[in-house]
Design a protein that fits this description.
By secondary structure, this protein is mainly alpha-helical. It is built from two helices and no strands. Helix content is about 55%, strand content about 0%.
């Protein structure tokens, strides 16, 4: 059975704030992994990255990113807390 690639491409402008926050959190997680691998002199292509910790990181971080994005959307000054 041949697998077909299904394209569900969205522009950033078309994403909900929640979707964008998840992508930003994933991007950050991958950058952290890449930086750590580089610091340890390892090639990221050969690392075994388990799904569960990565998902947990994205889940917890996306909430923080979501709140930050929503604050900017409504021009809320979060420095006054």
């Amino acid at each position: 059975m041949k697998r077909e690639m299904i394209s569900d491409t969205k522009l950033v402008e078309e994403m909900s704030t929640f979707q964008l926050s998840r992508w930003i959190a994933l991007f950050e997680a991958i950058n952290i992994i890449a930086d750590t691998a580089e610091d340890q002199g390892k090639n990221i292509d050969f690392l075994h990255i388990t799904k569960s910790p990565l998902n947990e990181y994205v889940k917890s971080t996306s909430d923080i990113v979501y709140r930050a994005l929503k604050g900017r959307e409504f021009n809320v000054d979060t420095n006054d807390r």
